[in-house]
């Protein structure tokens, strides 16, 4: 039922036929000359397949738009020639989608009630037979016909081989992919660069609305906005001091409201990347001053340590309050080491002390909720002690180990990945 038009090279209409039930068509009695064809796609079908793919002209599509939409290039018919190689490929587009969400509890899977992320550019890359090329794009937004579903995106594409790139702000980091079932996992693997999925094949008649991206909040510096927040809430720039075996970072806040906000404390690592070392929930105060202190025991002697403090909220993201440098003044006789900090089954906690020390270790979520209390409860005398922590029963995700040495507390981040 597809209508095919025959034109000469000047654009003059010559003849018209309709394809049969098997898609076959034939123009008879065509005089020698130069011609092109035009096709009317059937309802619900398109002809945007890649033309002239492969080396066999008897199986590829010849529609390349050379003479307008759904047309072929000009071809020549010689005296006595029969050309039965002019094919037109049509397809029913494949729905592709459909969600970008914020992983509030940092468990690498989409849970009920977690929010979608709007206004994210979704870029579609398609394989053209040689390489992946940009094909189309759309944006995440509110799902039509729903009261509050955000982060939704959907596009209809031709059959083929694809990958997706989510254009994310620096304040969001992809969660671990493939955690949970197909309805709750993230597909962001980074196979083609940051925030990209692995490649996948689509066939006419498919319905692939399970390509999702999960993200967690990370620290982002918002420039002048930080000064505005300081002014509105009167949060002081952090100060630092070395206390011998520890470094103390302190700051104060006025007119602070208790809510979903917390302070994020980070430390500059040897490879010049900031790593999270603790989170402190806001105290909340309408009068007076809220005072905050963090003490770091993980020090190397005579080394400069750089700390960064930010305030983070679910609604407005992360804003840097300030950085502070502290130089260790004396040789450090206490330290705590965790290795590997990304594990599937076992993590090793190594502690050095120079005096009798009561040791207690709790396992917490990133929001500060205690999951396991006193997983280590010991009395240390002098020297180095090492403990093995079994993580095989933990759900994949990020955690904190809160390590109490007498009245001092240190925090280490522990990441458990799928087996």
- Strand arrangement, major sheet: 21-27-26-23-24
Which range does the strand content fall in? over 45%
Amino-to-carboxy terminus distance: 54 Å
Low-confidence stretches: 219-232
| Overall SS class | mainly beta
Helix content: under 10%
The H-and-E topology, N to C, reads as EEEEEEEEEEEEHEEEEEEEEEEEEEEE
Mean pLDDT: 82
Radius of gyration: 31 Å
Largest sheet: 5 strands, mixed
Counting H and I runs of at least 4 residues, what is the number of helices?
A: 1
The count of DSSP E runs of length 2 or more, i.e. the number of strands, is 27
Which of globular, elongated, flat, extended, rod-shaped describes the shape? elongated
Textual characterization of the structure:
The chain is an all-beta fold. Helices cover 2% and strands 46% of the residues. It has 1 helix and 27 strands. The protein has one helix spanning 224-233, and strands at 3-8, 13-18, 33-40, 75-77, 94-102, 121-127, 132-139, 152-157, 160-167, 172-174, 200-202, 208-217, 239-242, 247-253, 262-268, 274-281, 290-296, 304-313, 317-327, 335-339, 342-343, 346-353, 357-364, 370-380, 383-390, 397-405, 408-416. It has a 5-stranded mixed sheet, with no helix packed on it. Strand 6 and strand 7 (132-139) form a beta hairpin. The chain is elongated and about 105 Å long.
């Amino acid at each position: 039922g597809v209508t095919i038009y025959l034109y000469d090279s000047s654009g003059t209409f010559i003849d018209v036929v309709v394809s049969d039930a098997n898609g076959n068509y034939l123009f008879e009695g065509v005089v020698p000359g130069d011609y092109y064809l035009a096709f009317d796609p059937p309802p619900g079908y398109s002809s945007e397949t890649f033309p002239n793919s492969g080396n066999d002209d008897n199986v590829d599509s010849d529609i390349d738009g050379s003479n307008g939409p759904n047309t072929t290039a000009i071809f020549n018919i010689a005296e006595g020639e029969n050309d039965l190689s002019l094919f037109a490929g049509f397809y029913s587009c494949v729905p592709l989608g459909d969600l970008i969400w914020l992983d509030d509890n940092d468990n690498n899977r989409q849970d009920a009630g977690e929010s979608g992320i709007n206004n994210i550019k979704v870029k579609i890359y398609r394989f053209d037979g040689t390489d992946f090329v940009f094909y189309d794009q759309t944006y995440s937004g509110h799902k039509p016909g729903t009261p509050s579903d955000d982060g939704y995106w959907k596009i209809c594409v031709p059959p083929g081989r694809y990958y997706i790139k989510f254009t994310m702000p620096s304040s969001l980091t992809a969660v671990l992919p493939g955690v949970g079932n197909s309805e709750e996992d993230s597909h962001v693997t980074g196979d083609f660069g940051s925030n990209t999925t692995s490649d996948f094949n689509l066939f006419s008649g498919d319905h692939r609305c399970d390509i999702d991206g999960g993200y967690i909040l990370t620290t982002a510096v918002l420039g002048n906005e930080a000064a505005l927040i300081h002014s509105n809430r009167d949060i002081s720039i952090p100060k630092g001091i070395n206390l011998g075996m520890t470094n103390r970072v302190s700051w104060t806040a006025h007119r602070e409201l208790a809510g979903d906000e917390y302070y994020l404390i980070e430390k500059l690592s040897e490879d010049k990347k900031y790593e999270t070392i603790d989170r402190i929930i806001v105290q909340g105060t309408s009068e007076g001053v809220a005072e905050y202190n963090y003490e770091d025991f993980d020090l190397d002697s005579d080394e400069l340590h750089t700390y960064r403090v930010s305030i983070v909220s679910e609604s407005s993201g992360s804003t840097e309050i300030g950085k502070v440098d502290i130089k260790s003044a004396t040789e450090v006789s206490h330290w705590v080491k965790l290795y590997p900090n990304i594990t599937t089954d076992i993590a090793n906690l190594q502690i050095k002390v120079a005096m009798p020390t009561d040791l207690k270790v709790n396992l917490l979520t990133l929001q500060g909720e205690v999951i396991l209390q006193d997983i280590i409860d010991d009395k240390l005398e002098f020297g180095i002690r090492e403990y093995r922590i079994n993580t095989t029963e933990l759900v994949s995700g990020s955690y904190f180990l809160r390590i109490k040495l007498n009245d001092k507390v240190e925090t280490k981040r522990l990441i458990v990945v799928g087996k």
